[in-house]
Amino acid sequence: MYPIVAPQVVYTEIGFDLWSLQSEPFRALHRHNELEIGVTECGLIRAMFGHERVDLTPGRMVVFWAITPHGPVEVTPGTRVHSMFIPLTWVLQWQLPESLLHPLLNGRVVLDEERAEPCSDTALLKHWSALMREKGPETQRIVLLEVEARLRRLARDWPRQTAAVVPVISQEGVTGHARHFEVMARHLATHYRQPLSVPAVAAAAGLHPVYAMRVFRKYSGMTIQDAITQHRISHAQRLMATTNEKTLTIATQSGFGSVCRFYQAFKRITGQTPKACANTLRGKP
To answer: What is the pTM of this model?
Structure first.
């Protein structure tokens, strides 16, 4: 495990951050309610996004709604990344083309091709970093307008690309504990809507439950049961953003056995009631 270096935060306010990080990013599964845009400047990050594993190579921009538990499995020494976090409610106000917005709201990861014109995405993130160091509302507006324009270019060019939505990548090259963790993470990310126990997740990787819990916590920073709950809450939020289903239906379709448990878990993880979160995502007061 490489040493963790604290990120250099270029700009931050509630829900709107941009930071750069060298060496190993935070090694744990995590989730938040922003749209995340990232570019690896150098090195390689092998990351899990729900059940998908994505190799983040230099120069390629990745975009995803970060409510799905995600995090690095392996990182090469000297890796440097630049990331931006924008509240989803802000992004929804841009009314981006459905060709891009629909897969993002449904938990997919968008990985663009490496670009050179009009500039590389690495240079673009650095440009935004330089602007945001100036601070102030006008600078923020300039950056957000440029981010919106970049996402619209991505939506325009997407139909021409054959691999814009990232497929599941094989486990070739992943060994030892990292491989066991990936098997467990993928299993719970594809079965969380079903009754799912720790022994069942451990069995998927051929491990004893106690040992499986130790490996999973080492790589994710959370317990297996917490990860299952996180995925269920993420699924509920996706349903809130993309449908008008009632709370009972959302709770059931997300894998919760009762509305009571759903309310308790939702408030604990998001800090909001399901109704308040649904109103926010649907643009209601």
So the answer is: 0.73
